[in-house]
Amino acid sequence: xxxxxxxxxxxxxxxxxxxxxxxxxxxxxxxxxxxxxxxxxxxxxxxxxxxxxxxxxxxxxxxxxxxxxxxxxxxxxxxxxxxxxxxxxxxxxxxxxxxxxxxxxxxxxxxxxxxxxxxxxxxxxxxxxxxxxxxxxxxxxxxxxxxxxxxxxxxxxxxxxxxxxxxxxxxxxxxxxxxxxxx
Length: 183
Hints:
Helices cover about 30% and strands about 25% of the residues. It is of the alpha+beta class and about 180 residues long. The strands form 3 sheets. It has a 3-stranded antiparallel sheet with strand order 1-9-8, with no helix packed on it. The protein has a 3-stranded antiparallel sheet with strand order 2-3-4, with no helix packed on it.
């Protein structure tokens, strides 16, 4: 009976060792590249303080009808107004085709009595007056930017002045009847 044994030569052992060294060096290169690249990629993620402000919850129960509050979301003032029935009717009565940035009141609110919008004038980034009691609210009973004379109505729509757009509405949702999440 003939035995078929495979004898290994020194050449075969050298090739196996070389293959192993190639694989080990390649694996080390991949691990080294990952260890170098990961901190760079991770540094591009938003900071923890920014993520904490990505969304905020606001309790609306303390805001009486006709009152307004300002909260900060992502470093921007957000105006929240508990509108009166008269303010709602006034906003709904405006013909949309008369507006320079046509948008109906229903498109700007989720519940008619609550108006939520970013309080930055769309002309040059000023903060309009009209949030606090006794402040000038402009010709349309909403907000007035004294820097350049932009007038906004009770729905935050531009009605007069150089501002090109309505006050923007941030993404928000009602969690309960008196609680909203902005962002």
